[in-house]
């Protein structure tokens, strides 16, 4: 990578980063230019930190490319009918020009943090406040390097502010990168307050957030080197967070679904977020110009199937068993159900070969216990309530119900998509005529599939249902502490504590507000596992249930060195092409091409 580009972008884009910082973190004061001495001022340090946070929104969480890289090519996600970067999903023909989301942005943010740390040591603030500001910069530098090292392995390592342009660069060994990450997070955890403190409000970094990321770094490095000390460090840090959850204001909601209630985005289960807004004073484009590659939060729409165009109420099954869409639609696009990007779909295709032949990963493996586990119904839509008064006559083409009727918006179900077969579908449930359309799993494909509802944003203006979401993207939740602690315990051979930690999450998932106390008690008992149930595959299935579509899956499979085996076992599309080399993404070719002096920057194997 050409470091003069990093330097130039750090300066040319820095003013935009200042302006794009999040209101939840601090109130920025954009500057027209920046020089190293600017970091000697409190406003310069704050502006730099705001830039580090803003880059998360600009380049990663909520954007299309990054979301695809985190979900595509795994065991629980497949390509939707409008997927972009299809090679990420199948690995067929993947090369160094595919992907690379956030690579250059990470180095812009890292260089800015280096400036804060290098020149901000003497800012005119009391020692405690200055220490907290520098700790924020260390956390953000570690955040970016940790993301880079997980995705790319060996990466350029720079811990000083780049002020002299150069056309050369080298990749540092993974071990060296982890040393910086762990030291930065250790320092940050020591110097940050227990809870977010002004001007870093909302869900900005604080001591337990730094400890969480530090534990995650130890766990990930432990998998790479099979280091028992790393697993022990991770386990100790994770369990300390659980023990002290009251001090940090963290806990689980009683109901799994409440973790995705917009009112709880900044609540007790949320650890860290990428804030979003659509205010043009923060550098956001005017409404109507929202695209997947911009800084908008478009996460709600990527796993959304095209419900307006595929809800024809007189659809029927053809001779080959497929669904033919026809007739007036029961749905129109609206705020509640969002914009249908159709990029990614849950892996519900029957496996074609091997031990899992005939099984659908999402329905028959991950979410198989839907009677006692509430997470399927809280993750996917099973019903779309009609939002248009569609009229159907008995004589309408392909209306096999033999009745005339008009859909009642807000009352009648326009689309019913149960996770099980229904006799009589698509127009009947058994012998009873259904006003809308019934779409059981046998009709699901890359255009018709259950939409993820966790991230939907009903707060957008009804006048423009294509508006992006202003909800924050929740990057980590407190349930992750339990499941990662269980993973560390598993690697330490402590299956008893691993099961106990997993049971906390599973027993929460058993709760339903609509259950009687006796039903909830019975569900808890059914969801409780024993130490002998704890295997790596079980842990990975549990993480799919808990974090489906939350931009964790590819990193989970890479961390646990399970990508190839899990994809071959469950993903029909990618199984023929996946290989171990793909546990690293390609260094973007555009970055490699910038190194024109000194040794050529090597590409990762397989690309």
Strands in their spatial order, largest beta sheet? 6-9-12
Strand content: 5-15%
Class based on secondary structure composition and strand pairing: mainly alpha
pLDDT < 50 stretches: 1-33
Radius of gyration: 25 Å
Give the rounded overall mean pLDDT.
91
Beta-strand segment tally = 13
Number of helices: 21
Distance between the termini: 17 Å
Query: Which word captures the global form?
Result: globular
Q: Tell me about the biggest sheet?
A: 3 strands, mixed
Helix percentage? 25-40%
Domain RagB/SusD: 439-607
Pfam family, one: SusD_RagB
Protein name: RagB/SusD family nutrient uptake outer membrane protein
Organism: Mucilaginibacter psychrotolerans
Key attributes of the depicted protein:
607 residues, disordered N terminus, 3-stranded mixed sheet, mainly alpha, two-stranded antiparallel sheet
In short:
Belongs to the SusD family. The chain contains 21 helices and 13 strands. The chain is mostly helical.
Structure in words:
- This protein is mainly alpha-helical and 607 residues long.
- Helices cover 38% and strands 6% of the residues.
- The protein contains 21 helices and 13 strands.
- The protein has helices at 3-12, 14-20, 42-59, 64-71, 86-90, 103-119, 127-152, 174-191, 207-225, 228-243, 245-248, 299-302, 361-366, 375-379, 479-491, 495-509, 517-527, 536-547, 553-559, 563-570, 589-592; strands at residues 77-79, 270-274, 316-317, 323-324, 344-346, 383-385, 391-392, 405-406, 413-416, 428-429, 432-433, 437-438, 473-477.
- The strands form six sheets. The protein has a three-stranded mixed β-sheet with strand order 6-9-12, with no helix packed on it. A two-stranded antiparallel ribbon has the order 1-5. A two-stranded antiparallel ribbon has the order 2-13.
- A hairpin with a 5-residue loop joins β3 (316-317) and β4 (323-324).
- α7 packs parallel to α9 and α8 (174-191) packs antiparallel against α9 (207-225).
- It is globular.
- Residues 77-212 form the SusD-like N-terminal domain.
- It comes from Mucilaginibacter psychrotolerans.
- Keywords: Cell outer membrane, Membrane, Signal.
- This is RagB/SusD family nutrient uptake outer membrane protein.
């Amino acid at each position: 990578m050409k470091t003069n580009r990093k330097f130039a972008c750090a300066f040319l884009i820095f003013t935009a980063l200042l302006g794009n910082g999040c209101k939840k973190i601090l109130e920025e004061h954009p500057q027209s230019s920046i020089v190293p001495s600017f970091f000697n001022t409190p406003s310069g340090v704050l502006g730099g930190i705001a830039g580090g946070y803003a880059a998360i929104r600009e380049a990663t969480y909520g954007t299309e490319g990054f979301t695809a890289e985190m979900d595509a090519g795994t065991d629980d996600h497949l390509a939707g009918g409008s997927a972009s970067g299809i090679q990420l999903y199948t690995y067929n023909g993947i090369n160094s020009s595919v992907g690379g989301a956030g690579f250059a942005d990470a180095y812009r943010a890292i260089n800015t943090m280096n400036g804060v740390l290098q020149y901000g040591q003497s800012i005119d603030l009391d020692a405690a406040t200055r220490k907290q500001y520098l700790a924020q910069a260390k956390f953000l530098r570690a955040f970016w390097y940790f993301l880079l090292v997980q995705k790319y392995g060996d990466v350029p390592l720079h811990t000083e502010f780049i002020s002299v342009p150069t056309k050369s660069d080298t990749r540092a060994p993974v071990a060296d990168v982890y040393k910086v990450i762990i030291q930065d997070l250790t320092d940050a955890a020591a110097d940050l307050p227990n809870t977010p403190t002004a001007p870093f409000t909302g869900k900005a970094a604080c001591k337990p957030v730094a400890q969480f990321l530090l534990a995650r770094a130890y766990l990930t490095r432990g998998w790479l080197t099979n280091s028992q000390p790393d697993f022990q460090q991770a386990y100790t840090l994770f369990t300390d967070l659980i023990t002290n959850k009251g001090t940090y204001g963290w806990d689980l909601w009683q109901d799994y679904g409440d973790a995705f209630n917009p009112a709880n985005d900044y609540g007790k289960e949320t650890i860290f977020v990428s804030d979003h807004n659509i205010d043009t004073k923060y550098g956001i484009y005017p409404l109507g110009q929202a695209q997947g590659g911009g800084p908008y939060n478009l996460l709600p729409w990527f796993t959304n199937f095209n419900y307006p165009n595929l809800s024809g109420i007189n659809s029927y099954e053809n001779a080959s068993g497929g669904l033919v869409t026809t007739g007036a639609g029961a749905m129109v696009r609206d705020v509640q159900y969002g914009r249908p990007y159709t990029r990614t779909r849950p892996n519900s295709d029957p496996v074609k070969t091997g031990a899992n032949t005939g099984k659908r990963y999402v329905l028959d493996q991950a979410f198989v216990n839907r009677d006692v586990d509430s997470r399927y119904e809280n993750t996917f839509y099973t019903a779309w309530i009609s939002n248009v008064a569609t009229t159907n006559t008995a004589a309408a083409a392909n209306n096999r119900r033999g009745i005339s009727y008009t859909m009642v918006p807000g009352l009648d179900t326009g689309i019913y998509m149960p996770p099980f077969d229904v006799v009589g579908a698509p127009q009947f449930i058994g012998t009873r005529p259904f006003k809308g359309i019934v779409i059981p799993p046998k009709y699901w494909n890359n255009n018709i599939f259950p939409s993820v509802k966790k991230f939907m944003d009903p707060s957008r203006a009804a006048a423009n249902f294509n508006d992006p979401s202003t909800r924050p993207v929740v990057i980590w939740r407190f349930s992750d502490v339990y499941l990662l602690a269980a993973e560390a315990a598993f690697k330490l051979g402590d299956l008893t504590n691993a099961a106990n930690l997993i049971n906390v999450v599973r027993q929460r998932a058993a709760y339903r507000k609509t259950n009687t106390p006796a039903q909830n008690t019975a569900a808890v008992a059914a969801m409780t596992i024993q130490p002998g149930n704890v295997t790596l595959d079980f842990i990975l299935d549990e993480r799919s249930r808990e974090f489906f579509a939350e931009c964790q899956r590819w990193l989970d499979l890479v961390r646990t060195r399970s990508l190839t085996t899990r994809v071959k076992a469950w993903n029909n599309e990618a199984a023929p092409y996946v290989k171990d080399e793909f546990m690293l993404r390609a260094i973007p070719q555009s970055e490699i091409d910038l190194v024109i002096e000194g040794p050529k920057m090597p590409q990762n194997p397989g690309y």
